[in-house]
Amino acid sequence: MRYRSLPLVALALLATSGCATAYEETGSELGSAMLMDRSGNNVGSAMLYSEGDEVTVSVSLQGMPAGTHAVHLHTTGDCSATDFTSAGGHLNPMGNEHGTLNPQGAHLGDLPNAEVSSAGVGTISTTLRGTRATVLTEIFDADGTALVVHEGADDYRSDPAGDAGSRVACGVFSQS
């Protein structure tokens, strides 16, 4: 009599086996940042997560102007200046030139452009250059790291910042 429920339990386990969050499916969450525009409005978020020895950053934008926007990791976890210059320059621990199309390499902070739709929504997800330990040491150092969204597209070449225009959104990473 006790075994009558066994098929039901097995069916329930089977039915829920595919249920998992994105982070459970792709790796463990390492940190996050809430992105704010110059008026203090929440315009998105960024998540850091790992899978094996790699770190991936995923950025979700909403309420942003339509178009192509550069997205970069910046050296200082500080978005207090209204123009977000307090975030410093691009995260570049190896002293490389700017741009993923640059034959001399790229900054750790060089991320893909985000295409924002007419509805104000856009996403990017990319694996950061370097090992998990190296990347996390740089991002979670004493002064932290900010993720900055720019008004225009990154040309992936111009040093030091890709000719992407002013900073329109910023968020500071906190460790999970």
Automatic annotation (TrEMBL):
Domain Superoxide dismutase copper/zinc binding: 46-172
Signal sequence, start to end: 1-22
The organism's place on the tree of life at top rank: Bacteria
Molecular-function GO term, any one: copper ion binding
Pfam families documented for this protein: Sod_Cu (PF00080)
Record key words, sorted: Signal
GO aspect biological process, one term: superoxide metabolic process
The keyword Signal is annotated on this UniProt entry: yes
Family indicated by similarity: Belongs to the Cu-Zn superoxide dismutase family.
Designated name of the protein: Superoxide dismutase family protein
Species of origin: Aurantiacibacter rhizosphaerae
